[in-house]
Amino acid sequence: WTKCVFRIKFLYLKKNLTPKKVKSLTDNTMRKLIYLLLFLSTLLSYSQKKSVSLKPIKENYSRINAIKKWTKVDKKEVVESTEGGEISFFYLNDKLEKIVEIHFGEMGKTITEYYLLNGKLSFYLDVDVQYEKPFDDKNSTKLTDRKYFKNNKLIHEINEQDQGSPFINNKLAIAEEEKRILANFDKILLLAKKQL
Q: Any residues with CB less than 8 A from the CB of 129 and at least 6 apart, and which?
């Protein structure tokens, strides 16, 4: 560090700057470095907190997808899309763990997965598959939307279509998206209860 300061002073002295100007320039450089370090430490702290808060959700997602034998899988046909669809409810020891909703269309399909943690929605995965030709899923494109929930609050989103979260600082958009997903989730849970 002292070598760096010495080099800065040497360069400025070489350009016929007075010691007072060199000290001022060195102080400004130091101030900028301190601000940069504070900014980087804040950024690092924020990213660590977010990854820690997502860790239980990601672990639950991995746990559920590792289950090979479900104790019960209920399927229900739905007619909300032009080509129909179905909803599958996955149970382990009479506990609903996962819901998969598929809607078919002429030019694609939508697959939405809901993962539960302690009876609440924890992770929402939406895959929009777009066909190149009608009813032909070869050479299709997929857009994936991932949403993380904690205590029925949307806390994080990864959206391929928008290359990240489109509403990172828009509280109204967050609230509307959260409300839309939770309303659909509650509607699907009612279907699951009717089947019991």
A: 108, 109, 110, 111, 137, 140, 141, 142
